[in-house]
Amino acid sequence: MPFTRMDQMQPQDVEFIGGVFARRQAAMPGVIKAMLRQLDEQVDGMAVTQLEHSLQTATRALRAGAPEELIVAALCHDLAEVICDVNHGAIAAEILKPYVSHDTCEVVRTHQDFQGRYFYTLIGKDPNAYRQYADKPWYELACRFSAEWDQTSFDPNYAMLPFAHFEPMIDRIFSRPYYL
Question: Which residue, among 156, 163, 149, has the nearest Cα to 43 in the 3D structure?
């Protein structure tokens, strides 16, 4: 009989649960792909869907020679938009955190502040909010991510790569052992 309280757990429970977690983890690339596909239903007043925006951002990162984990992070940076807009960078970063480097995670976590230099004044926020990270080792990468890949990726005429092009990358990144 399964335990009903954590203080009742036995070694065989831990072993069984570990197997269940491993099977669920093996399915993680499919979960991420399904979440990304949901972004194709969101236009949010832009010229492209959120999925197209993500594909454009990832395509730009790939064409710029970014490493694979950063390309996948570019694809997934707005993944949490399927849940909410507020704090979506932090939510997406937490999803990515076990699979990518600290610097890549921080770029995703803070990307909204870096984007804010283009629109924060329009909503009464400080457009220089991104500068609070100037002493961080990933600051220049975040500036590049925002300026060259993210903020330019709302163009319905941009020749982005299809979702299928990125699927093997998603499989590799979300199948790797956790960063601890």
Answer: 156
Q: What is the dihedral of CA 110, 152, 80, 68, to 10 degrees?
A: -80
pTM of the model: 0.92
Could you tell me which CATH class the domain 13-172 is placed in? mainly alpha
Distance CA 122, CA 5 (A): 51
2-19 confidence digits (pLDDT tens): 889 999 999 998 888 888
Q: Where do runs of H (alpha helix) occur along 1-129?
A: 11-26, 28-38, 50-63, 68-76, 88-96, 102-119
Report the b/e string of 5-39 with b at 16+ CB within 10 A: eeeeeeeeeeeeeeeeeeeeeeebbeebbebbeeb
The 8-class DSSP code of residue 120 comes to G
Instruction: Output phi, psi for 158, to 5 deg.
Output: -70, 135
CB 127 within 8 A of CB 117: yes
Asked if 81 contacts 39 with a C-beta cutoff of 8 angstroms, the reply is yes
- Say how far apart CA 28 and CA 111 lie, in whole Å: 24
